[in-house]
Amino acid sequence: MFDNFDLMIEALGAGMWTTVWVTLTSYAIALVIGMVLVVMHVSPAFPARWAANAYTQLFRNVPLLAVLFIMYFGLPKVGIVADSWVWALLGLGMYTGAFVGETMRSGINSIPLGQAEAARSIGLTFGQSLSSVILPQSVRAVIPPLGSLLIALVKNSALVLAIGVPELTARSRRLIEDTQSRFDLWGVIICVTVGYLLIALVLSYLVRIAEKRTAFVR
Amino acid sequence: MNSKNETTVLFDALGPKGRRNANIAAAASAVVILGVLGWVAYVLYGEGFFESSRWVNPLDALVVETTWIPAIISTLVAFALGSLLAVALGVFIGFGRISRFLPTRAASTVYVQFFRSLPLVLLIWVSFTIDGHFGFTTDTLGWSGEARRLTFLVLGLGIYNAAILAEILRAGVNALPPGQAMAGQAIGLRHGQVQRLIVLPQVLRNMLPAVLAQLVILLKDTSLGYVITYPELLHSANIIGRDYSNSFLQALIIAALIYFAMAYALSKLVVYAERRMRKKTAAPKAAAQLESVVAGGTAGAGTVV
Amino acid sequence: MRAFRKAAAAIAAVGLMSLAACSGEASQDAEDQESLEESVGTYSLEQSAEIPAGYIQDIQDKGVLTVGVKFDQPLIGQKNTATGKIEGFDAEIARLFATYIFGEVVEEGDDANLVFVETTSQNRETYINDGTVDAVIASYSMYPERLTQFEFGGPYFETGQNVMVAGDNTDINSVADLAGKNVCIAEGSGSIANLEAENPDAVITPLADYAACAEALENGQTDAVSTDETILYGFTVDKPDAFRVLDSSNIFTDEPYGVAMPLGETDARNFVNDMIDEILANGDWQKAFDLTFGAAGMPTPDPLPAPNRY
């Protein structure tokens, strides 16, 4: 079943590494975009709120694959050319950023109004009450959903195979379609499944640690 | 949704000076945003993005009739069948997860954890590839060509989303105050009756918005049919773009706009359902939880609680 | 209610967009295609005198021939999105095949007897194995190792692997020049192994299909595309300025295109070979060529292909 095991592990290992770094890098981009969106969302300037809303709606309602296709195959038609991995990171990051922004926003909203009222009534300014009362609490509230977004991103990262990034799914497809048929179908399927389960397991473990670290007794 | 309250508590009501500052900020950000948009439009214009022939060719009446409309129908068919399968299987597995019978619970948990960790694109493609390795094929059942690709797209969408819907359902059951079930038992209902008459109706009502939100994602995920060349919207847009290669970007953008219109309409339904359902439930916690589930998007509900 | 109104407005906008569209190139293209077909004339092939029992007989009884072809390769198999018709040499061979079985080709309506299913380089094998299609006619080369997996009728066309670069590229002039360059090849295509054997220093970056590769080459995201010259030729016809195919002396493989069917169906294979012999003799092969490669300016190959009855 596991013919040419060493070759297979080599290829899938490389794919797994690509999946991991693509996921983590684009997640970092998504966090930055999400934060900018939140700031725009709560800002008093309505055009900023409007723009943040438009961005969120756009990326929430268009398939990720369409976003990637437009970026990689479409944008060069108007003179914007970049390598596939650049678009992979940007596409995944911008798409996930919209969801991160929404998650953070609902994290802020989940803090009872009384907290803000209390902060204001002891004389803290807007900035102070946001930075020392609201945000620290909402960070704790958003860590679990942000964690599930990270796991979702691992799965979404498989889509970048469509623009030629050799991540785990792409590598396994290539093994199965090997022109010399050196690999067994089931062996590859088992290995690629184990690969994704491993990544998901490790990441959710890390998320749980982050959760515990920030947990507090209310 | 309640960001209005939030901001009014965080800010003092603005005085005349503050209001002037806010107006200035608004104007400044408007200038920045319009500037960026204008610059983008200018660059696109320079590249001939708006040339009418580039938009007219992929939207030729013949192309609309023979390619766009069948593509939209294919997408909607995959969405409808995929949703049906996902909801049916999801309810089944979801109740398996809270069953009193340990093996059922274990099996459902394994199902959920397993399928939630795999990329949907892998599921669709693997189920498509292993067909024929069991000694029989879907072809022997009389499915061929288009129907077969549809089958595997629907299977992939259904199996994957069922795992996520099951989690949403479980979160809904857990959010229901235990007093509801206890009250049922107190008036002498059996376990099954409690589940069927008291828990399920409330949970379904509670979780409807979250389920619909997941269905929006399922609609977008039909685009993954491209890996098995199912002629859905995105794949067809690609083929049109290749037929009229000057309009490649335009064809993709048209497809994206159609997806947007469909998904946006569906997500408005979510908001509407949310508003109606909020009033009719015994679970005060549920509303807040729902919001995070909805925001979690593709993530599913399991770890959200 | 506002939400509903917005949604309705969005849907109406899309509807209007499609209504506003009336006639672009598509109508003109359809007319051109029609006049081309008229000038070439119709095929003279008739139903085969004897239908072999088994595979071909089953297809005839079923009343439908399902063929896997490519939908995005100009001149070989490309879907015309305006008429829905599949154009290209592979598609013409499929039409002749259907004629040989049923006596006539019906592609539309409920009693259609020829159905095209889109295949890509990666799912051709799956499609034959699980019976999605009755035959694959999709620029599928009869390599020795493939002959042990499927029955191949043909070749009905012969070509070889070459290299295509961007029109303004001057530093790639031979396969050896590909060392260290990014070369795009379709996922699952035999061309990957061929190039690996010919020039192991080329960096192969697979995309889903050759249309995507051509797209990437035009966008400057890859340095070259390498596959069968016929496929490359199709792209240069569309955009003579964007692409340049290396001189034919660089061809480094033999690619005999065959009609693939499940292993063991020897009668079916012979049936296809008989058909190819017949269309070569009665001029239908030439007509199919004139409709596709010929119309794009390719000279008729010499010698013509001859079925390989292995």
Task: Outline the structure in words.
- By secondary structure, chain A is mainly alpha-helical.
- Chain A has helices spanning 5-42, 46-61, 64-74, 84-109, 113-121, 126-156, 168-176, 185-214.
- In chain A, helix 1 (5-42) packs antiparallel against helix 7 and helix 5 packs antiparallel against helix 6 (126-156).
- Chain A is flat, with a radius of gyration of 21 Å.
- Chain A starts with a helix and ends with a helix.
- Chain B has 305 residues and is mainly α.
- Chain C has 310 residues and is α/β, with parallel strands linked by helices.
- Chain C contains eleven helices and 13 strands.
- Chain C has helices at 2-20, 25-40, 55-62, 89-102, 124-129, 144-147, 191-198, 210-218, 229-238, 266-282, 284-291; strands at residues 65-69, 72-73, 77-79, 86-87, 114-118, 135-136, 150-159, 161-166, 182-186, 203-207, 224-228, 243-245, 255-262.
- In chain C, the strands form four sheets. In chain C, strands 10-9-11-8-12 form a five-stranded mixed beta sheet, sandwiched between helices. A three-stranded parallel beta sheet of chain C has the order 5-1-6. In chain C, strands 2-3-4 form a three-stranded antiparallel beta sheet.
- In chain C, helix 7 (191-198) links the parallel strand 9 (182-186) and strand 10 (203-207).
- Chain C is globular and about 55 Å long.
- Chains in contact: A-B, A-C, B-C.
- The interface between A and B is large, with 74 and 69 residues.
In short:
By secondary structure, chain B is mainly α.
**Taking all residues together, what is the mean pLDDT of chain B?**
79
Kindly report the average pLDDT value of chain A.
Answer: 86
State the end-to-end CA separation of chain A: 54 Å
Query: Could you state the oligomeric state of the chains shown?
Result: heterotrimer
Please work out how many helical segments of chain A DSSP would assign.
8
Cα-based radius of gyration of chain B, to the nearest Å:
24 Å
Describe the main β-sheet of chain A briefly.
Answer: none
Structural class label of chain A: mainly alpha
In helices, the fraction of residues of chain A equals over 70%
pLDDT < 50 runs, ≥5 residues of chain A: none
What's the count of strands of chain B? 0
Percent helix of chain B, as a range, is over 70%
* β-strand number of chain A: 0
| Biggest β-sheet description of chain B | none
Broad shape of chain A: flat
Number of helices of chain B: 12
What radius of gyration of chain A results from the CA coordinates?
21 Å
Structural class of chain B: mainly alpha
> What series of H and E elements makes up the topology of chain A?
HHHHHHHH
Poorly predicted ranges of chain B (pLDDT <50, ≥5 residues)?
A: 1-6, 285-305
